[in-house]
Design brief:
four-stranded mixed β-sheet, 49% helix, 2 domains, six-stranded mixed β-sheet, 12 strands, 18 helices, 13% strand, Rossmann fold, alpha/beta, 499 residues
């Protein structure tokens, strides 16, 4: 029986364990360094996202639960290392296998007991944690688990009681050693036989655990091979002592029960993500920013108010950041964003994409309030990500990359493009961009296109499926307005004295 076979920290059930893989370009462009393992968990399933939101809300407000997850991750990492070490030693003497089994099982049983104790002290509300607590309770209360714990306890008593061994050596007529063996195991340490001990303990000669002649450390007197032979002999003797206890434990099926230790490791990847995710939440709070858990919609509409760029907040005082709004509602399918050079168009586009990404992971987003229709796919075409990808001319390179994006589209995707087609003349670029965006929207995708192609924005301004945004000069404020036709290139050039 596998207790965690149908349980997930991040999914309500196996039936919903779908994964929308997003590309490496997302990870590179967003540079969310705290999250190292997020791409496989992106989803547009509202039930999945709501399940995660419930867990992260609870983590956000429950310090005891945060400590629990830190403890669980630390111990699960150790258990994983123990199990990996066990897998890497598929061959060897039976005694070694028994010892490894005992180590893995002892660690596992103590982990389950401690998890049960800690969970009993925490007030839990999320479905993920309530279900997890039920599973831990079911394991710890099971007859098999308690038999295993008892058997391991008996073995521990046997092993821990051994403090020293008595070695017997047979001699020939010339008092030369001819054979040696372990005579007995003792529950106390022997006394060294040094002269100072004789002075301090007048009953020295009466103790059977006293040495007549002092022995030095083996490693100083024996070669490596001799040390190995000696240790093997001792280990074989210890193994014989452990045999009865181990046999008793094996009657409880502990080799089969060892699979339970591997079973709990199913949670490791999801646990790693959860721990990283709430550290990201803490980073948002530490940066002085606010955040919210978006209301989830399925009508295609999205409204985000007071959004800001997450990474920007970690690198500058929060009161210097200009928050913005983002609204994409039916019948709009694409947004054309124009504005001055260095006005914040790229920052805005990336901030919106990060909100969609975090929402699809079940995490809070850097905004005051939001209603979001989750995306099934996020695609980027940013020069900083895609440049020189194909080692060809800039326009040809862009066209090849954009063809791949179009071919990989799935329903309910969104493409974020920044200064695409800027490598060719404005007239041709506007014509190509307009036709490409029309193809994307016809395929059911949404688009946020940040550009200096003001003619493109003007051509699309009056069409109902397009929305026009512009950045106000010198404010970083993004507003809904008609394109003003200027990128302020001359002003920037004069500012640096090149004209």
């Amino acid at each position: 029986m596998y207790y965690f076979e149908n349980y997930h920290l991040l999914y309500p059930s196996n039936d919903h364990a779908e994964r929308h893989i997003i590309g490496d370009d997302i990870a590179k462009q967003f540079n969310i360094s705290i999250l190292t393992n997020f791409r496989q968990y992106f989803s547009d399933n509202i039930q999945i996202i709501a399940y995660r939101q419930q867990l992260f809300r609870e983590l956000d407000t429950n310090s005891e639960l945060k400590e629990f997850f830190d403890y669980f991750k630390e111990k699960l990492d150790i258990l994983n290392d123990l199990c990996q070490n066990d897998k890497n030693h598929t061959q060897g003497i039976e005694a070694d296998h028994r010892v490894r089994d005992l180590v893995v099982l002892s660690f596992y049983t103590e982990l389950i007991k401690e998890l049960s104790r800690r969970l009993d002290r925490i007030n839990l509300t999320s479905s993920a944690m309530l279900n997890f607590k039920r599973i831990i309770a079911k394991i710890s209360e099971s007859e098999e688990f308690n038999k295993l714990s008892q058997s391991l306890g008996e073995i521990s008593v046997v092993i821990e009681s051994i403090k020293s061994i008595t070695v017997g050596v047979n001699l020939d007529a010339q008092l030369r050693p001819i054979e040696a063996g372990v005579v007995s195991f003792n529950s106390e340490y022997y006394k060294s036989g040094e002269w100072i001990d004789k002075l301090l303990r007048m009953d020295f000669s009466e103790s059977q655990f006293s040495c007549i002649a002092s022995m030095t450390r083996l490693s100083k007197k024996l070669s490596f091979e001799e040390n190995q032979q000696f240790r093997t002999a001792i280990n074989n003797a210890l193994d014989k002592v452990m045999t009865d206890a181990v046999k008793s434990a094996r009657k409880s099926g502990f080799r089969a029960l060892k699979e339970w230790a591997y079973d709990v490791l199913r949670l490791k990847d999801e646990l790693d993500f959860v721990v990283e995710a709430y550290r990201l939440i803490q980073a948002m709070s530490t940066a002085g920013g606010y955040y919210c858990y978006p209301v989830l919609k399925n009508d295609g509409n999205t409204e985000i108010y007071g959004l800001y760029h997450l990474m920007l907040a970690q690198n500058m005082p929060f009161d210097q950041i200009t928050p913005n709004n983002y609204i994409l509602k039916t019948p709009h399918k694409a947004i054309i964003l124009t504005g001055p050079n260095s006005g914040g168009k790229t920052i805005y586009s990336t901030a919106v994409a990060i909100c969609y990404l975090l929402a699809g992971l079940g995490l809070p987003i850097p905004a005051r309030k939001a209603e979001i229709t989750p995306l099934s796919q996020i695609k980027l075409h940013f020069p900083s990500v895609n440049a020189n990808q194909y080692k060809m001319g800039r326009l040809e390179e862009e066209c090849k990359c954009l063809a791949e994006i179009q071919a990989e589209l799935i329903p309910n995707a969104m493409i974020f493009m920044d200064e695409t087609f800027s490598s060719t003349g404005a007239e041709e670029a506007s014509m190509i961009a307009e036709q490409y965006i029309e193809r994307l929207t016809a395929a059911g995708a949404k688009v946020l296109f940040s550009t200096h192609l003001h003619s493109l924005a003007k051509n699309l301004y009056d069409r109902p499926e397009f929305s026009s945004l512009t950045v106000e000069l010198g404010t970083y404020k993004v507003i809904e307005d008609s394109p003003n036709g200027s990128s302020c290139a001359e002003r920037i050039a004069r500012q640096y004295g090149i004209i």
